[in-house]
Amino acid sequence: MSDHTNREDFLNAIAEKAGRPRHQLKDHPFEPLNDLPETTLSGHSQDELETIAKKNSEGVHVTFKTTTKADLAAALNAYIEQDAPKTMILPTTDKYADFGLTEWTNNVSPKPMYWTPGKGRDFNLKQAAAADVAIGFADYLLAESGTITVATTPGQGRGFHFLPTHYLAIIKKSNILPRSRQAMDHYDADIKSGKLQTSNINFITGPSNSGDIEMTLVVGVHGPLDMTYLVVEDM
What we know:
The structure is a single chain. This protein is an alpha/beta fold. It is about 35% helix and about 20% strand. The chain has one domain: Rossmann fold, CATH 3.40.50. The strands form three sheets. It has a six-stranded parallel β-sheet with strand order 1-12-7-4-2-3, sandwiched between helices. Strands 8-5-6-9 form a four-stranded mixed β-sheet. Strands 10-11 form a two-stranded antiparallel ribbon. The longest helix has 16 residues.
């Protein structure tokens, strides 16, 4: 007996027990109860969204910093110097040129490792786990929750964000959005157009944390000990 036949028999039995006929979803189109996903925090300027994002990010134990494109390399160097890492990992991406960081990648110390396409999962995970610091690029920052979103790519895999000890995400100010609905609208359009190919989209809200049975918060228990969001205000 086919899976389809089994499914139909099962659903028919449920409908019979419930005392009502079978129905199809097309006969009952989805009607949202409200428009909160679209209207929450709508109408705010980018300056206002940045202020909201800063407050909510700091509320989930994120260090929130701002800079300009011209000062971005100096801001990254200052971040690195404060932790004095021995090892650092960067993504393989063409975004360095967009952010004016090509020369910085050639001169930064310590000499970075890279999440490298084609090297295999084990190789990249081992490098990420050994990294004291990871500096990567976030796609969007959600003002409502202080969450960054990052689509997995061959040059910046999922483990890149979760295995290093310290983590910094670079975000354009123009990519601060009200909430997850707007981010998913952007991702949906990019996937449908072929601009983005990804296996998953990560939503990361601050450093890892856990509360034990006594409700005591422990930050960094199974991931980065701390997170920094660096917003580039003129991008």
